[in-house]
Amino acid sequence: MRINVVNPNTTASMTAKIAAAAEAAATPGTEIRAVQPTEGPPSIEGYFDEALSVPGLLSEIVAADRGGVDGHVIACFDDTGLDAARVIARAPVVGIGEAAAHLAALVAGRFSVVTTLSRSIPALEHNLVRYGLASRCARVRASEVPVLELEEPGSAGRVRIAAEIALALREDGAEAIVLGCAGMSHFAEELSAEFGVPVVEGVAAAVRLVESLAALGLRTSKIGAYAPPRAKAYSGPFAGLVTHA
Ligand code: 5HY
Which long-range contacts (CB under 8 A, 24 or more apart) does 170-174 make? Predict the structure, then answer.
């Protein structure tokens, strides 16, 4: 089985971290193709970055889909471009945010999300409403750690994330934690041991879920919202994307 894992930002060190988490989670025999676009934001922090990351993301989705992968993972906790990717791709597409929230809801009555900056919170809250999981999320919290600070050796990021987890367990009634950034993937196991609760990491969750969809022969339904684009004269640098649908 081949899974295409796309980091929608352009930071290669983050893609490498994501690849390691994806390969550690994948079942034996699954090949992970981890990539990032050549154009777009170096990190995704809020609505503007999300929008600018989508064309590059879709380019990577289409390129892999043409090559015949069995599934796609969007490795940004905002699930940027998820619905558009499901329109244009033949193989199933899973976002790490949606995947992590669903798995957290299977192991806890209520969970809290700990993400990077406060400016990302509204988009994540909106996603949880779209996914039908808002009632299971006690709170979306921010550690105020910028995404790229997580790439800096020796940063205080982990300490600030742990402090926010402690507050979530004490104040929110959270019984599990979801790490709200692909750049936090390497912290999950140690934080779960430190706090004694499930800490759900989205890359691993999404890899296992998309493997399951592929193994069950389940692909995105193409008769409604995710039907291929209607024939029209697209123009500009991304017009070639639609010939794939
Ligand atoms: C992510 N940003 O997973 C999100 C998290 C965030 O570049 N990769 C990013 O801060 O919204």
Answer: 172/110, 172/112, 172/138, 172/139, 172/141, 173/110, 173/138, 174/108, 174/110, 174/111, 174/112, 174/138, 174/139
